[in-house]
């Protein structure tokens, strides 16, 4: 049993929880909780590391067996150590480290008949988590993210996505604008959502393509908007100047797939 | 200038921030931040009390004048006192107490041609805030809430609603089930959203009515579902077993008004 916070395994795990930079360097991310750890395993992610408390092992013995059997390494840790790792109030006692980018899950090729979401500079982890969860529920074929979006592998996004981060094909592109230009050149319909000078989405006949959603405060950049095939908007009646970014993304994806 | 945390005005304001019970007894609620306080004033709510810091008064002088001119009472408070009242990390220095239930804004009568949302036992303040914000943006005519929903006047809901709580006609009914039965008896279409034994919402021709949305974990109660005119569902493709309650509410309201 690991009981020291100075243990290298614990120090590394804690760093993965806290630091986006460290997640990028190590190419690993973390998940905490019985449901989300099982979700990762059932989605084909074998834990690089599985940490658990004695009480969790007893309480969730089936889940313990399931996760343990596919983990590269597994250690019992004391409750005190677990609380240090956890970013929740009442930790359940299961914690996994997964390797980033299981290549099978990655979005390599845009299918012309497929329906995708493109996210530019989404900053709020809870918005990103909700967008991924909704994308999965509605049946989006993949998500393209700009490099300046918040970290999709942060604990908040992993939890908020309800495990969709394990399953929705996604790609992060530092050259987001060039990537979108390339799609347009390949004849793929790219829709830019913006309240100004745009078609009402209920009047557009969608047959696949990419729906772009911009930053919470500023929307899509002009550079991106000018490359789109069409600008679209959600018709609004009330005074609230805009919907929350996740809600807007949900309605836009829904209309594309409806 | 108020500098003591033992000042009765401050003690009462702090209690209104923290205690839903006290908000109910006092029939008052609070809002914090420049934008949300102005929003309340512009929506016809005259503050019962306006508290501000010297630096905020200087920095936001136009907003200060606007709020001050309609406030029943106003006091400068020290930064230390303000931080005690605030539930945000970097408070802007404006705080208002408003009276609950400006009768003009209240939902008194259901119009047969109107479109409404009915919320049963929604527990998460951020979901409730998002639902109200979305309801306003889409043009919902009013929201009926069951008595066991979380407090619509909590600081989190007020902030998350982006001020929609000031403007969307709403009513809280302790006798929610009887209320819904009454609407059905009056010939109003009442739709219960549930994943089981339900019509696909894209196949339903809506012309007004009430869309009922249930608790985050358990959905609508059987008692409510059995009184509905029709059970409806959002068709889902992906593995995420359900959408977030606020997202589901958004898509359902959107389809009714589309």
Q: What does this entry look like structurally?
A:
The structure is a homodimer of 258-residue chains. Helices cover 38% and strands 18% of the residues of chain A. The first copy, chain A, contains twelve helices and eleven strands. In chain A, strand 5 (115-119), helix 7 (125-138) and strand 6 (142-146) form a beta-alpha-beta unit. In chain A, helix 1 (8-18) packs across helix 2 (20-26) and helix 7 (125-138) runs parallel beside helix 12. The A-B interface holds A 126, 130, 133-140, 162-164, 167-168, 202, 236-240, 242-244, 246-247, 250-251, 254, 257-258 and B 126, 130, 133-140, 162-164, 167-168, 202, 236-240, 242-244, 246-247, 250-251, 254, 257-258.
């Amino acid at each position: 049993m690991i009981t020291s916070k100075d243990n290298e395994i614990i120090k590394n795990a804690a760093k993965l929880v806290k630091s986006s930079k460290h997640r990028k360097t190590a190419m690993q991310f973390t998940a905490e909780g019985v449901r989300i750890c099982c979700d990762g395993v059932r989605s084909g992610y074998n834990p690089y590391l599985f940490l658990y408390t004695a009480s969790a092992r007893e309480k969730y013995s089936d889940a313990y067996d399931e996760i343990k059997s596919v983990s590269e390494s597994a250690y019992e840790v004391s409750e005190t150590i677990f609380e240090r790792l956890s970013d929740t109030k009442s930790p359940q006692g299961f914690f996994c480290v997964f390797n980033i980018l299981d290549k099978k899950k990655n979005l390599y090729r845009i299918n012309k008949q497929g329906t995708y979401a493109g996210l530019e500079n989404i900053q709020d982890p809870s918005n990103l988590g909700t967008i991924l969860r909704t994308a999965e529920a509605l049946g989006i074929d993949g998500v393209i993210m700009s490099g300046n979006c918040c970290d999709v592998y942060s604990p908040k996004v992993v939890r908020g996505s309800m495990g969709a981060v394990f399953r929705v094909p996604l790609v992060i592109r530092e050259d987001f604008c060039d990537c979108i230009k390339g799609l347009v050149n390949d004849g793929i319909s790219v829709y830019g959502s913006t309240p100004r000078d745009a078609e009402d989405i209920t009047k557009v006949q969608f047959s696949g393509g990419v729906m772009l959603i911009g930053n919470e405060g500023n929307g899509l950049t002009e550079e991106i908007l000018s490359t789109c095939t069409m600008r679209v908007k959600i018709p609004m009646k009330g005074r609230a100047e805009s919907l929350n970014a996740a809600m807007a993304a949900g309605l836009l994806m829904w209309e594309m797939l409806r």
